[in-house]
Amino acid sequence: MDYASRISKLEAQVEMNQSEIERLHEAINELRRLMLERFEHQDARINELRTYFDHKIDGGLKEVRREASINMRWMMGMWLSTMGLIAGLYGRVFGIY
Fold it and tell me: What is the CA radius of gyration of the chain?
């Protein structure tokens, strides 16, 4: 084989490799675009679910806060009643009243 035929074969191989590289770059760019679209869709879905659960939790927390407020009022009422009874008993026992 002479050098001219080897060079022409190498040039053909380089051109084929170059076209293959360009095709692969296009395919990689397409995959990146598709992945980005999918991630954006997943992010939107995650944000939607996060918002849903936030509303759900806020509703449950409002109910818990309401119940805690009612229980706190009862506890304060019972505490004041108990202190009143103790003060009354103290006054009776020690003749303050």
Answer: 40
Residue found under tokens 């009143």: 84
Q: How far, rounded to the nearest angstrom, does the alpha carbon of residue 40 sit from its chain's CA centroid?
A: 15
The whole-angstrom separation of Cα 97 and Cα 21 is 103
What token pair was written down for 16? 């084929």
- Per-residue model confidence as pLDDT tens digits over 16-71: 999 999 999 999 999 999 999 999 989 899 999 999 988 888 887 888 888 999 99
Tokens of 75: 């506890």
Are the CB atoms for 65 and 71 separated by under 8 Å? no
Query: Is-contact 28 22, C-beta < 8 A?
Result: no
Q: Specify whether the CB–CB gap between 63 and 57 falls below 8 A.
A: no
Amino acid of residue 91: G
